[in-house]
Amino acid sequence: MRFSRGSFLGISCLLALTFIFAASSASAEADKPDFYRLRMGDMEIVALSDGHTFLSQSLFRGISAQEMRLFLEQASQPADGDIRTAVNAYLVRMGDRLILVDAGAAACFGSSLGQIRGNLEAAGYLPEAVDTVLLTHLHADHVCGLTDRAGAAVFPNATLWTAEEEADYWLSEEKAAPASEGMRAAFEMARAAVKPYAVNGRLKTFARGQELFPGVTSVSSAGHTPGHSGYLFASRGQNLLIWGDIVHNGAVQFARPDVSIAFDSDSAQAVTTRKKIFEQAARERFLVTGAHLPFPGVGYVRRTPEGGYQWFPILSDQEFPGGENAAEDAK
Q1: Contact predicate 122/34, CB 8 Å
Q2: Fewer C-beta neighbours within 10 Å, C or N terminus of the chain?
Q3: Among 30-39, 87-96, 245-254, whose mean pLDDT is lowest?
Q4: Are strands 159-163 and 203-206 parallel, antiparallel or unpaired?
Q5: Taking Cα atoms as reference points, which of 150, 129, 132 lies closest to residue 192?
Q6: d(Cα 160, Cα 222) in Å, to the nearest integer?
Q7: What secondary structure, in 3-state letters, does the chain show?
Q8: Where does residue 246 rank: exposed (0-12), middle (13-18), buried (19+ CB within 10 A)?
Q9: Rounded CA separation 282/305 (Å)
Q10: What is the per-residue pLDDT across 141-195, written as a single tens digit (0 to 9) for each?
Q11: What is residue 199's predicted lDDT score, i.e. its pLDDT?
């Protein structure tokens, strides 16, 4: 998927959205590793790769092209062309609950994405076993995987949860009616993804900061979308924050949290939220996962002497392909 080959702003590409990834001719070969398992407290956490996309450097706001290149080079990322970007989801077994956070893009945006279901099964879980799906927001790379090509629920026994503000925006006919053609497609994708759950009474909303279950609390992080939310999981004195789209490129936005991206519905609020979440994660020493951090996207945020932040992944995707690792890896 490449924004540079077909921007969402182009009338000729109806499904290229203001917040998500345009289609490309990427290979259907699955990314490796496909899943990564660890334990924290009494929780089992499984990172699931949905694949990858490519983001144009021009989508990042508040940074010059020269600065962008420098940050990418310092992170040993290619400084020319589009940036390869992971798309991740996370499964958490907590007591008798099996909770999936986000569901990936399925077939919405080309063959380089859509691997959540296969990787879930490779990790030893059937979609029917998932009883709860927590949605960080209703962008299509997070919700299209809720349904199959026929529009049926992929997780037939699951209840969906999303923030009140998120549902009020993306599921509203009033909000969709005046939107541009490309944005209307975004609304339609969100509605189609949740429909088979909603018609069966299995779509629920929550208020900001609401505790959803014992040990699982929503974390309001609006800005990227009106109701964007993270989820804080607590077990035996340890905390896991699954933060969704707080970061789209770690090489840039940890050092420069003031850099926004074109997909943000409110860029100023997104920047404020990112700084707040970084500070809290660093201060509280949360284990963190991110939907667009390099797979498995699990690690810690630390302050730097310069006043910025730095990401410390618990492993690289080359070291533990598809592996199972103990809780000590997360410390």
Answers
A1: yes
A2: C
A3: 30-39
A4: parallel
A5: 150
A6: 19
A7: CECCCCCCCCCCCCCCCCCCCCCCCCCCCCCCCCEEEEEECCEEEEEEEEEEEEECHHHEECCCHHHHHHHHHHCCCCCCCCEEEEEEEEEEEECCEEEEECCCCCCCCCCCECCHHHHHHHCCCCHHHCCEEECCCCCHHHHHHHECCCCCECCCCCEEEEEHHHHHHHCCHHHHCCCCHHHHHHHHHHHHHHHHHHCCCCEEEECCCCEEECCEEEEECCCCCCCCEEEEEEECCEEEEECCCCCCCHHHHCCCCCCEECCCCCHHHHHHHHHHHHHHHHHHCCEEECCCCCCCCEEEEEECCCCCEEEEECCCCCCCCCCECCHHHHC
A8: buried
A9: 13
A10: 999 999 999 999 999 999 999 999 999 999 999 999 998 887 899 999 999 999 9
A11: 97
Q: Is residue 292 pLDDT above 70, yes or no?
A: yes
pLDDT, tens digit, for every residue of 210-266? 999 999 999 999 999 999 999 999 999 999 999 999 999 999 999 999 999 999 999
Q: Residue 103's closest CA among 93, 117, 121?
A: 117
pLDDT number for residue 161: 98
* Tokens 């986000």 sit on residue: 102
Token couple for 237: 């004195």
Q: CB of 232 within 8 A of CB of 220?
A: no
User: 246 with 230: CB under 8 angstroms?
Assistant: yes
**Residue 160 backbone dihedrals phi, psi, to 5 degrees:** -90, 145
User: To the nearest whole percent, how much of the chain has pLDDT over 90?
Assistant: 78
Encoded tokens for 68: 């962008």
Angle at 218 between CA 18 and CA 125, to 5 degrees: 85
Whether residue 33 has a cis bond before it, omega within 30° of 0: yes
For the stretch 310-320, pLDDT in tens is: 999 986 443 33
